[in-house]
Design brief:
With about 180 residues, this protein is mainly alpha-helical. Helices cover about 80% and strands about 0% of the residues. It has one domain: Four Helix Bundle (Hemerythrin (Met), subunit A) (Up-down Bundle), CATH 1.20.120.80. Helix 1 packs antiparallel against helix 5, helix 1 packs parallel to helix 6 and helix 3 packs antiparallel against helix 4. Keywords: Cell membrane, Membrane, Translocase, Transmembrane, Transmembrane helix.
Length: about 180
């Protein structure tokens, strides 16, 4: 139910985007040129790949393997903790990339109050960023629970699965946002 309500929230943001885009298309044509597609594509790739590492962590959790069983460099033997830590780092990298992009755009004069495009851009990507930060907090909770568990069992594995649902949802929303904001010119 909660993910469904989140889906409706983002549907509202998409509706706002398309409504304003239809009202002032000339602003969109001008402002989309300010976006750095290459940088955004790299940042997006990191976030999408974090879904892969998250799922690898879920599979390790389902095997009840919280920790690696070999060298840190033996990725095939990583446990849930290693995969989820890597996922966390990739998500944090994405947020850092968003902040960098915001700083660049503000320097170029695109602010939340500079135009309808600025408002929609920062609201949609900003709310998504807040959701990514929420996922990062969930990963910290998941890792804390894993490290404090005397015995890693179904409860910890289920927590990993639930956190992964949210993370995959956030990634899918970003793919849609990326397509609409960066690719649909």
């Amino acid at each position: 139910m909660w993910l469904a309500s989140e889906l409706m929230f983002f549907a509202g943001l998409f509706a706002m985007y398309f409504t304003l885009r239809a009202q002032v298309p000339e602003v969109w044509a001008e402002r989309t040129e300010m976006l750095n597609l290459t940088f955004a594509a790299i940042n997006t790739t990191v976030l999408v790949l974090s879904s892969v590492t998250c799922q690898l962590g879920v599979w390790a959790a389902e095997r009840f393997q919280p920790r690696r069983t070999g060298s840190i460099f033996a990725v095939g033997h990583w446990g849930m903790n290693e995969w989820m830590t890597l996922t966390y780092l990739m998500g944090a990298f994405f947020i850092g990339g968003q902040l960098y992009e915001y700083a660049e755009l503000v320097q170029e004069g695109l602010t939340i109050s500079s135009s309808p495009y600025g408002s929609v851009f920062y609201l949609t990507t900003g709310f998504h960023g807040l959701h990514v930060i929420g996922g990062l907090i969930a990963f910290l909770f998941l890792l804390g629970r894993s490290f404090s568990a005397k015995r890693f069992g179904h409860h910890e594995a289920t927590t990993a699965i639930v956190v992964s649902y949210y993370w995959h949802f956030v990634d899918v929303v970003w793919i849609a946002l990326f397509a609409v904001i960066y690719l649909l010119r």
